[in-house]
Write a structure and sequence with these properties.
The chain is of the alpha/beta class. The chain has ten helices and 13 strands. The longest helix is centred in the first third of the chain and has 20 residues.
Length: 299
């Protein structure tokens, strides 16, 4: 992910805005990008009503092509790839934005993004305590049992406030269309990764949180066009459209700071970028090439 965002900063990655087709119960996304001799497109459905059921919220495919001769190189499951690359991008943002002494992690949500975000946060910081909240207490307890073999200090929380108060890093990975965490529960100095909301009419953070935050986004144009945390807070008069301090590419390359003071409340708003999918797909393909047990199919 760091290589992908550095490529965005230098202009060597090409990425138009994604196309979003509204569906009766969600949305259909088409996301193209080009990076390092490869081009790819992700096509997926996003159906929040699937949460907790037999089908995942995100389903789709990523197709990777060689830009030299046009060959299709790989077809990958979009849900698995999205879970990995989204958490990796949040981990990258956390590495540059969270306090170095951040040790307590709160995860709001208990789906696949919650699991991958726990892994990514533990890679970015020395996490000593993990708290999990979900609207389904059973799903929260299941996630705790799933990760307990790797993390001893992990517990399910009965409320968002219980999970968030005193936390140093908060990951919002829910499918909620309305704010799940209140500004009053977020201490100065906390870092928040807001991941779950994907449209201009949905958000996980309230206007008061956005007004306090030093905000970094994955891409300015996408955030201003599609981010509900920004659009709804602007409509309420809590912030202006100039609220973005930097994008992640600027932070990674040192053109901007993710955090200026220890007491800053920092927010990384992730909508997800096609260049992340292409970078992750290339990494998976390279791993497959090095795997002697891989089976290859000629297309």
């Amino acid at each position: 992910m760091e290589r992908a965002f550095r490529a965005l900063a230098t202009g060597s990655a090409v990425q138009p805005l994604r196309m979003v087709l509204p569906l009766p119960t969600g949305a259909f996304f088409v996301m193209p990008a080009g990076l390092d001799g490869a081009a790819g497109v992700k096509a997926l459905t996003y159906l929040p009503a699937n949460a907790g059921g037999p089908r995942p919220v995100i389903q789709g495919l990523v197709t990777l092509f060689d830009t030299t001769d046009g060959r299709p190189l790989a077809i990958l499951d979009a849900a698995s790839l999205t879970a990995i690359r989204t958490a990796a991008a949040s981990g990258l943002a956390t590495r540059f934005m969270a306090r170095f002494d951040a040790h307590v992690l709160a995860v709001l949500g208990a789906g696949i993004q919650a699991r991958t975000h726990i892994e990514a946060m533990c890679a970015a910081r020395e996490v000593r305590e993990i708290r999990v909240w979900s609207r389904s207490s059973e799903r929260a307890r299941t996630l705790v049992r799933t990760v307990a073999d790797k993390h001893q200090e992990v517990r399910a929380c009965d409320s968002v406030s219980d999970a968030v108060r005193g936390a140093d890093i908060v990951c919002c990975v829910t499918s909620s269309p309305v704010p799940v965490v209140a500004s009053a529960d977020l201490a100065d100095g906390v870092h928040v990764n807001a991941v779950g909301a994907h449209t201009p009419t949905t958000r996980e953070l309230d206007g008061a949180t956005m007004a306090r935050a030093r905000l970094v986004v994955d891409a300015r144009d996408a955030a201003l066009a599609e981010c509900g945390e920004i659009a709804l807070a602007v409509a309420e008069g809590a912030i202006t459209r100039e609220c973005i301090a930097a994008d992640l590419a600027e932070v990674v390359t040192g053109r901007a700071s993710g955090r200026t003071r220890a007491r800053d409340l920092t927010v990384f708003k992730s909508l997800g970028l096609a260049v992340e999918d292409v970078a992750a797909a290339m990494a998976v393909l390279e791993a497959a090439r090095e795997d002697a047990s891989a089976q290859w199919v000629t297309m």
